[in-house]
Amino acid sequence: MVESLLLSWVLTVLFAVTAVWCAISATRPGLRPSDRLSSASHLAMSLLMIAMVWPWGMGVPATPQLVLFAATAVWFAALAVLRVPCAHGYGSPRLAHAHHAVMSVAMVWMVAAMPLLMLGAHDSGGGHHHHAAGAPASGVLAAPAAAAGPPAPVLLVSAVLGAFLVLSSVAWISTAVDTARHNLNTADATGAPADPRATRLAWDAACHGAMSIGMGAMLLAML
Length: 223
Fold this sequence. Notes:
Blueprint: H1 5-26, H2 33-53, H3 62-81, H4 93-117, H5 152-190, H6 196-221
Helix pairs in contact: 1-2, 1-6, 2-3, 3-4, 4-5, 5-6
């Protein structure tokens, strides 16, 4: 959860957009089964990130989320090791899969560490999420009843993951911009319509860049 109402809505809109695109990607005809499954996992990630933004998301059971994203982390790591081709618009399929694996690890971390990150939030004196620090055990993992604030190692890991996700989004965004620009320049030079495949690759890269920067921003906002 994040304390800022404005940031909550910005992240909600961002992840709603990525969820729509991932749903379109997952149902696209002719897609490899591995890419279809990867798009479906990103759809689940986008929807659960929306839930994490708001207090009611604390009631979503933690264990299924941990199992799901631990499995997707292993899945993407295996795709990277095996050098499986990737349909997304990224320079290196192996790096793309590795980045997705890190995003899945970050999801596991957020589900597991959110109660610790929320420690002391109810004493911060403001914010629309202050009442949710005492989350039910059926949702995110239960936090210790008495603690002055998040432990330093939890803050450090969250800061490193958040910074990595924000910075690594630059590669996705630059890929999206370069692909779209090249596609438009080629269309202008030849007088032919823009290549639909290149357009899709640009949107894919933009989607994953948005997901990365949104997850990173949320982690950093919870510090």
